[in-house]
Amino acid sequence: MPRTPAALPQTLPLLLLALLLGLATTTPLPAQVASPFTLRAGDAEVIAGGSVEVPIYLDVNTTVGASNVTFGFIYSDIFDLTSVSQGFALAGLNGGDGAFQFLIDTQESTGDPNSNPSTPSGAPSGYKGATLQLQIPDKNLTDFLTLGADQEIAILHFTDGSNIPSVFSAIEFTSTLSGPLGPPIGDVFIEVIDATLPPDPPGTYDETGNPPGVSTVEGSVLVIPPPVINFTCGQIDDCLCLVGLSWTNAYSYDELSLYSNGIDPGNLIASLAGTATDYPVTQTVSTTYFLVGVANGMVSNPIECSDFSTCSLTDITPPVIVGMPEDIQLKTDAGICSTTVSWPEPTSTDNCDGAVVPIYVVTEDGIPVSPSNGEMWFSGNYIVSYTATDASGNTANESFSVTVNVPLGDDCNLNGQHDACDLSQGTEADCNANGIPDSCDISEGTEFDCDLDGVPDSCRGGSAFDCNNNGIPDECAF
Description:
Layout: E1 16-18, E2 37-41, E3 43-47, E4 51-60, E5 66-76, E6 79-86, H1 88-91, E7 101-106, E8 127-135, E9 148-160, E10 168-174, E11 178-179, E12 186-187, E13 190-194, E14 204-206, E15 214-217, E16 219-224, E17 229-237, E18 242-248, E19 255-260, E20 268-273, E21 278-282, E22 287-295, E23 298-299, E24 303-307, E25 320-322, E26 328-331, E27 338-340, E28 347-350, E29 354-355, E30 359-364, E31 367-369, E32 376-378, E33 380-389, E34 395-405
Parallel strand pairs: 2-15, 3-16, 26-34
Antiparallel strand pairs: 1-13, 2-4, 4-9, 5-8, 5-10, 5-13, 6-9, 7-8, 10-16, 11-12, 13-14, 17-18, 18-21, 19-20, 19-22, 22-23, 22-24, 25-28, 27-32, 28-29, 30-31, 30-33, 33-34
């Protein structure tokens, strides 16, 4: 069970450390006149409105160990001391139980049932005070702190009540406080009692003397703005090599500073308005970005984001043609030599230029010809070739075929063209190639008007006609 200072056994060897610090800053002693013991507070930064831990160290600079330590300290009243816990150096002592007694007296509630919010007294205006006394050895054990530096004996847990970056408070050791941890109830000195065992009397060291038995080094707590949150980065344009950065502001910053590959003035990319939440950067190689918020002249802790994409500012990627038609095969109507040919126009996309309009040419047997999409095309075999070209000269090519056929029919002159479409025949056939058009050739068994008087020969009175002079009257020719 924890005991009050009055109940501490007087026969145990004690090492009592007392520290005095008024409103003035204590200057560390030169190394050549080092004290046997040094009581030192750490430095810490706390996010505005947040919480922070400040360690208290005891440097044992002598072969005489420390068994008891007592000290008081003051801090700015804008901070709240929410608790004080045993430091790492005490955790393994007394079989892992820590210090035998760890007594706290603060002006705030720390969860210690023995704390009294009215004490300790003596803190100057604008400050709060607290005192701490620890007895290391158990009554049945003889553990104590031996020679060594940076031995953490306590951790002060603070919260910031200002929410204003740049607010600063020193953690100042002092002997101006009074309370139940002073013997018996009075001033709390800064003392260390050594670990000399009976029958030798214990030695007591304090902050007096030249050099003093206990020297002190104050610590500090500085309020800084909180960092941005949700900081992300990713490539948004692989043609322009753009990477997009975005984040959420966690405070009302005066400005934001963006760095690449380390926080150094030479790596500053941009100083942004405190309200900015995104920013594009040109990136050709893998890069790590650091973003800090600035408020009241104080900078937040940096938040980083890495994008590993690489990019070339020279565009070598061709467009892509999409929606190309399949090959087209058509037939004309009977006796007609052409038909309408049409298709949906394809489109193309490009990584840099977006939509690129493809153009086409039509060839027949490798020779450019004039028919266009939606027009009449004569019978034949065609190739429609599309080309899409971007601003950097990269091209894409696609093609399809168009075949127009005429229905089967006569080809009297065997020139590969149906007579109905054969201009060499003048659309007039002479199938027996006797020089007489079939419409006037009695051998074709058709109706003739050989004298061209507008009356069919079969209706004319008189002798029969023999237009082709083959000795057979026309009306008998089939």
